[in-house]
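Researcher: Sequence recovery benchmark, item below. Answer with residues only.
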């Protein structure tokens, strides 16, 4: 009997090793994407999400790409590449809007009231068909202040369109647009620069002439946005709380 008791911990370890970990697949645009070291300190919030994750329970697989919209992510085969990897019980975090709204670029433009919602619903349906749990994330804000010190709304109808899709499909939604609005406006015009890609000439090798980018995140901004996302995930997806 004692011999069998001694074997139990080994059996538990073997069973745990054979159980595949769940994966969080991230699909989205440049504000979520992994960045090359040559453009540091530019950082996507999906790039730093693994820092918040208990990797013994779940792993993060970030497929977000610069310049992508719901339309181009599907049409260029990036979405199919994610579908091919999904297994039951995985999660798919979906954040698009920054590029869908660019009417001047037909390759990425997806109208908020029509094709944007159709594309999101397709992703949701196909992820569910593979046994995954889709989660929607509204786009983070651009750092675009009005003269009165209030933050300008640059995303138009896209956040509302995503909320409509979430309601119609019963998908959890993390409102990063609202959360980052409070974060940036609360910090103010000057202090909020630290969240975005602002640096003087000579500060970073990848930006020898300096940079002033109010769309893409700095390392500090990415960490802050990821932290906001995690807090909302814990509330809306309590089954994942122990994974962070």
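Model:
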């Amino acid at each position: 009997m004692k011999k069998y008791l001694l074997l139990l911990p080994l059996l538990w370890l073997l069973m745990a090793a054979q159980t595949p970990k769940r994966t969080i697949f991230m699909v989205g645009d440049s504000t979520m994407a992994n960045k090359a070291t040559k453009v540091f300190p530019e950082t996507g919030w999906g790039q730093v999400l693994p820092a918040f994750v208990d990797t013994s329970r779940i792993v993060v697989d970030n497929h977000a790409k610069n310049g992508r919209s719901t339309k181009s992510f599907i049409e260029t085969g990036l979405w199919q590449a994610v579908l091919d990897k999904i297994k039951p019980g995985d999660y798919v975090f979906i954040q698009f809007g920054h590029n869908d709204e660019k009417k001047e670029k037909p390759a990425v433009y997806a109208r908020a009231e029509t094709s944007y919602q159709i594309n999101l619903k397709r992703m949701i349906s196909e992820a569910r068909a593979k046994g995954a749990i889709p989660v929607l994330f509204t786009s983070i804000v651009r750092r675009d202040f009005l003269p009165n010190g209030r933050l300008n709304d640059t995303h138009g109808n896209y956040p509302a369109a995503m909320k409509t899709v979430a309601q119609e499909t019963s998908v959890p939604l993390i409102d990063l647009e609202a959360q980052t609005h409070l974060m940036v406006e609360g910090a103010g015009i000057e202090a909020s620069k630290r969240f975005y890609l602002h640096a003087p000439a000579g500060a970073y090798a990848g930006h020898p002439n300096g940079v002033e980018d109010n769309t893409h995140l700095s390392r500090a901004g990415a960490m802050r946005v990821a932290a906001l996302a995690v807090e909302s995930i814990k509330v809306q997806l309590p089954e994942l709380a122990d994974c962070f």
